[in-house]
Write a structure and sequence with these properties.
315 residues; alpha/beta; three-stranded parallel beta sheet; 13 strands; globular; F-box_SCFL_complex_component; F-box/LRR-repeat protein; F-box-like_dom_sf
């Protein structure tokens, strides 16, 4: 979509670009720009990857100042800043006494007609004598949840109709065991979790997303019916020569456990590890799938290795 400049903006741009020799060395020419023109520049700069650059323009000159705050869309998500959740938690904890805690009603756990459940931000602990009875449960979506010992195991155990489970940033999940589960989505970025085991004999679709530290703790025991696998592994911890081999072993193990799926999508360190193995001429997991999608985030130096990887994938 084009944004035509007003006559005033065109005039300001002309004056700045043509009158360099007539301007004193210490004059702030950026401040001389019309705000309309500066906002237009920021508008084209402010996509998801350049929000930081937009904010940095406030340091260019006094004329830019807080103009960045008037841009319609700003994206502040940065998964590399693992200290951010702690900072937010510490701030919110100062106001805990002003909040009202909501306790889930006990009859929710014993509702045999419950088909779909979505929860966000709860701490789930069950008292003795309370059993989960969700025999009609089909879909379970949980986000920012914390579970007591064995809770998620009891929730998933013996659910014949359970089709889809989606877990986003949940703690206390040590194993996912289900005989009828069809779709499993596990997304984690920040929280350090213990080992996670997945055993779902009828699973057809698996989506795992998180850091190398999180994904490295996942053990896939049995997903023999898997049709579609999506593995997105980010890097929010430094990878050094000391832990590189461990990271590579974890990724190879993960890829090997899903290499029988028909459609596989990989991104991040799954791709990085395969390219390293290809460049060194080492054996890598054979991906015998009908469809392979490789999502690549790379620098120019990665191109030769990726070319070798793609050649090996289609031999």
């Amino acid at each position: 979509m084009e944004h035509p400049l007003s006559n005033a903006a065109k005039l300001a741009l002309f004056e700045v670009t043509t009158c360099v020799n007539d301007t004193a060395a210490d004059e702030d020419r950026l401040s001389a720009l019309q705000n309309e023109l500066k906002l237009l520049i920021l508008f084209f700069l402010a996509d998801e990857s350049n929000t930081r650059d937009v904010i940095w323009t406030s340091a260019l000159s006094r004329g830019w100042g807080n103009l960045w705050s008037f841009v319609p869309y700003l994206h502040f998500r940065d998964m590399r800043r693992s200290h951010l959740p702690d900072a937010i938690d510490n701030t919110l904890c100062q106001y805990l006494d002003r909040t009202r805690k909501y306790v889930l009603p006990l009859n929710l756990y014993t509702n045999p007609f419950l088909c779909e459940l979505s929860l966000n931000g709860y701490l789930i602990t069950l008292e003795r004598g309370i059993f989960v009875n969700w025999n009609s449960l089909v879909q379970l979506h949980l986000r920012d949840m914390s579970f007591g010992v064995g809770i998620i195991r009891d929730v998933l155990k013996g659910r014949p109709k359970l089709h889809t489970v989606k877990l986003l940033s949940c703690t206390g999940v040590c194993n996912i065991i289900s005989e009828g589960l069809n779709t499993l989505i596990v997304i984690e970025h920040m929280i350090a979790l213990p080992k996670l085991e997945i055993l779902a004999t009828k699973l057809e679709s698996l989506h795992i997303e998180g850091s190398v530290n999180f994904v490295g703790k996942i053990q896939i025991k049995d997903v023999s019916t898997l049709v579609k696998a999506r593995l997105i592994v980010s890097n929010i911890i430094p990878i050094t020569n000391n832990n590189l081999m461990e990271v590579m072993d974890d990724q190879v193990q993960l890829l090997t456990s899903v290499n029988h799926a028909e459609d596989i999508t990989i991104r991040g360190w799954c791709v990085k590890v395969l390219t390293i193995l290809a460049m060194k001429g080492l054996a890598s997991p054979s991906l015998d799938c009908k469809g392979l999608m490789v999502l690549i985030d790379m620098i120019l130096e990665d191109l030769p290795a990726t070319e070798i990887l793609l050649q090996d994938s289609f031999v």
